[in-house]
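Notes from hallway chat w/ T.B., transcribed later so I don't forget. T.B. wanted the structure written out for a chain they're using in a teaching module, and asked if we could keep both sequence and structure tokens in one place. Agreed to drop them here.
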Amino acid sequence: MTANKLLFSTIEVTRQAFYKTSLAFAIVNLKPIVPGHVLVVPTRPVPRLADLNGPELSALMSAVQRVGKVIERVYGADALTIACQDGKAAGQSVPHVHFHLLPRKLHGDRFSENNDEIYPALEHSEANLSDVLAVSKSTKDLSKEGRFIEGVEPIKMDADEERKPRTMEEMVNEAEWLKGFFTETSQQENVDSTA
């Protein structure tokens, strides 16, 4: 990982990142809905999927695919729920395109009996985020320049009592653990491509 700061909208997420390319990155989630719930985000902060150029969209989808394979394996999942809330009317609360990747199990995750309940849970998980992010005009101006944002208040999440916000230390520990799987995957891909 480079020393460049990564922004999810105006929120610096460098320490929560576990996968990065020049055009996309993946971060662990502050309040995961299921174990292994992560986000895949384009490097350039744009609000909607249609705002991405061709190379960015391609890189984002490649990152979703690569991160998804690893997350599914690492968390012992049978499948993935992959979701993108593209616009405020769709439930997007952070104005930066992102995909949720949620490892799923046929039996044993909290949504296995009623699979469709995961979608309201996703919407609820972000519903109030935009209302509580402290984003001043000067912060918005700085974010356009892609610089680190100082003075942004900590994120306060919705009142979902089942999912307490994790500490920075918990998120960093998970991100560091996940980074190791991408190093292993890269080494295996290199071996496979030379065989």
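Follow-up for T.B.: Residues 7-186 form a domain with the HIT family, subunit A fold (CATH 3.30.428.10). Might be a good example for the class.
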